[in-house]
Amino acid sequence: MFEKALLPLSQKIIALTCVAGLTLAQLPAFAVEHAAEVQMDSDQKILHLLNRLTYGPRPGDVDDVKKMGVEQFIQQQLHPETIQMPEALNSYVDGVESINSTPSDLFRQYSIVALRANKNVGGRKLSDDERKDLQKEQGDNYRKLYNESASARLRRAVESPRQLQELMVDFWFNHFNVSNDKGLVHLWTGAYEQQAIRPYVFGHFRDLVEATAHHPAMLFYLDNWQNTKPGGIQFAGRGKGSKNNFEGLNENYARELMELHTLGVDGGYTQADVIALAKVLTGLGLPPQNPALLRIGQVEIGRFGSAFAPQRHDFGDKVLLGTTIRGTGEPEIEQAIDILCKAPATAHHISYQMAQYFVCDEPPKALVDHLSETYLRTDGDIRAMLNDLFHSHEFWNPKFANSKFKSPYRFVISSLRASNVALADYKPVLGFLRQLGMPLYGCLTPDGYKNTQTAWLSPDALLRRIQFATGLGTGKLPNNPLDPLDYKDVSTSMNGLFSNNTLTVVASAPAGLKSSVLLGSPEFMNY
Amino acid sequence: MDRRQFLQSAATFSLSMLLPGAQAWAFSNSQPSKNKLVVVMLRGAVDGLNVVVPYGDSSYYQARSGIAVQPPGTADGALNLNGDFGLHPSLAPLMPYWNSKSMAFVTSSGSPDATRSHFDAQDYMESGVPGAKLVTTGWMNRLITLLPDNHSPVRALNFGPTIPRILSGPGTVANVELGPQGTRPLVVDKPETEHIFEQLYGNRNDALGQAFREGIQARKTISKDLEDEMEMANRGAPTPAQNPNFGKKLAQLLTKDDTVQVAFIAFGGWDTHVNQGNGKGQLANKLAPLGQGLAEFAAGMGSKFNDTTVVVMSEFGRTAHENGNGGTDHGHGNSMWLLGGKVRGGQIYGKYDGLATARLYEGRDLPVNTDFRSVLSSVLLAHMGLSQDQLEKIFPNFVSSHSDVGNIINA
């Protein structure tokens, strides 16, 4: 018993309550488990809340939450429309072309096809100079679109008061990842996030599946735009093997839709299910950019400018996860998405990822089960799941407080928030993320980035974080003229986070380095 | 014994507790060997049938009418290996090593697990325990905890910003950036700044403290080793954009610092579902810098090539038949590549069954006739000097499948 005498009084009482009725001999495993479930005090609670529901506190945030209370803060964040957006941020976002244009407009304006058309070269072979010009223009467009979309993402993550919304945009984009570095996707990455992800981050999970399934970015990224009934279709003027032929099934999207987006890799589907789903998805793609393709007949233009080509669809009946889907064309896709989204395996998969993102790298089974039940009961209502999550005792377990290692992305955003600086140019931040192996919109593989310590902690990475912290703290971030930070701002915004050792080192560090020491400290690597 | 050594010994010990029959201190009297193992992982499943091309098999050309690599002697045709198989023409820089019998391939090899998920398949190949999701360490990390400790911060090198699964675990691993950022000075290179952060991290007994100490030590070693390279680069010799010079850089690190025991590098972009091409095209363009880099590595190693074995592997192969888009979908068996002075090369190992549907795995993919662990076991026993007991800790409960790869390394 006297071990527990070391705990503060409030914790001691709880620990004693937990073991009441047990003899000492019965104590070990059970008692240790429950003894750990002490409560956080109210300051710890607020810091924990800000660490997990936001990208980390800015100066003043702790006081704001103190005033409004924890519950009020949670409800506000879950209902972002109740939070006033700064006018400047709103008008900035409204002016970002790459995220506000439709995919078809972006294609018409910036694709290589459009560039050629503007030059009026038709099908003629280009001269070397023309080709060089075209390549340069294409590179310029690529950079323009990327810098616009990525800067908008970062700036909102740093500045938006609707912080949970920003976290969920990152969470769901990553879940339905597309890579800027695959072909045409670079035209649409920002638009994809703005149009197919952002509106649905607190909606029903099915909304996200439905939207991403129809967005050109996803259709191109996972090749479904070419997925065609077995045997394929032929049309005049094109030989076999030519790139505009649609010669048969492509399983890529069908597999990842089950493995990554919905059921999870252990979700109980077979290779036969992959093929069945691929057949369901045949014909769902992009409108023809090449007039020759119009010869395949009419296509139906759908959401986000996607297209469904009945001529390429397999109208046979399919069996997906034991359910027969009659060959009816486009409605099959809706039916398949229904089947996938209602599956308990999907509930479990999504719940696990959510719990891992918000609680700890290896989330407790009880929490995952609890969230799965909420998913199944509410038809995949994300807001309801989050609300349950934020009221679970696992979420508030002090052993998880400041125990998650920040991804490079979270590290950068949290340090910019703690520093309370407005960057004029986010390109140095984008470069830093690339260096740390987490380029924004640059995860090549469809599984997205991991958010665990194992994935991100490495010797070199730690030194590079210290490098970034030092640059930011001393006001020497490239392209951004800044004053050195006032370390008092940084330290008060995270009152209680820093260890005595860190505070001692700060006290003896040269004045100009104090903020850098805080931002590069071990405590600030976690959240 | 400093803390890092202690951590490593402790780690070895706990691993040995985990695996029955282990003798934790079996290696305590042996001397560190100079032999090196380099593993190259092609993430995304490279199309092995277009790398080691069965041009003598007509079923290959039937299955791949649009994307087959044509036979030797034709335009963009394969380079003859042994009369039945040919090498993809983009890998021409490696032919001298095949001809001097320092390069071998193992056809129809890979992981026995049936998964066609990239991510599970890569995890299994990196953990070395296919099918077991709870194994958190990588087999290359277990390997360095079993090799005689040479107390070098760079005994295990990873190229890239994060530590991959294969090197995850308690053993010390240094990671190096491939690009110019890797050698650019950092603030912690300055002793006074290092001292400040040393006070923050130096005494921590956790993963952060360990990462910090390893990072500082590795940085000191690596920047010394790369100094000449930086000077060369500063003299402005242009690098072809597509060639990251990985081969030269890796060779430089391994020759300048004889304490590097294992190195790992991964390349992505092999998931060719669409328009992969044949002797030319997308896959060809990806293979060319890889072949070039490996050849430069082999040349750069000089006499130490004889102490080095390179293994190239990929999580699974691709479908025997081309799909509807001039590409290939996820398959099963693949080819492994071995390169090094001790490789019994100039031979194709493994058992190729042809591409008739009845001979294919699930009627669609090259089967796995040789487990990747059989190949790696030969390398670890004959080249890295592991005992059978130690091998059991790298690949627990694995019995080498009956195959010809037992002699793939000249002892």
Compact summary:
The complex is a heterodimer of chains A (527) and B (411). Chain A has 527 residues and is mainly alpha-helical.
Number of strands of chain B: 12
Can you tell me the residue ranges of chain A where pLDDT is under 50 for at least 5 consecutive residues?
Answer: 1-36, 236-243
Shape of chain B: globular
How much of the sequence lies in strands of chain B comes to 5-15%
The pLDDT mean of chain A sits at 88
Structural class of chain B: alpha/beta
Question: Strand order within the widest sheet of chain A?
Answer: 1-3-2
Describe the structure.
The complex is a heterodimer of chains A (527) and B (411). Chain A has 527 residues and is mainly α. Chain A contains 27 helices and five strands. Chain A has a three-stranded antiparallel sheet with strand order 1-3-2. In chain A, strands 4-5 form a two-stranded antiparallel sheet. In chain A, helix 1 (9-19) packs antiparallel against helix 2 and helix 3 (42-53) packs across helix 4 (61-68). Mean pLDDT of chain A is 88; it is low at 1-36 and 236-243. Chain B has two domains: 36-179 and 261-407, Alkaline Phosphatase, subunit A (3-Layer(aba) Sandwich); 181-243, no CATH class. Helix content of chain B is 32%, strand content 13%. In chain B, the strands form two sheets. In chain B, strands 1, 5, 6, 7, 8, 9, 10, 11 and 12 form a nine-stranded mixed sheet that branches. A three-stranded antiparallel sheet of chain B has the order 2-4-3, with no helix packed on it. The longest helix of chain B has 19 residues, at 207-225. The interface between A and B is large, with 53 and 59 residues.
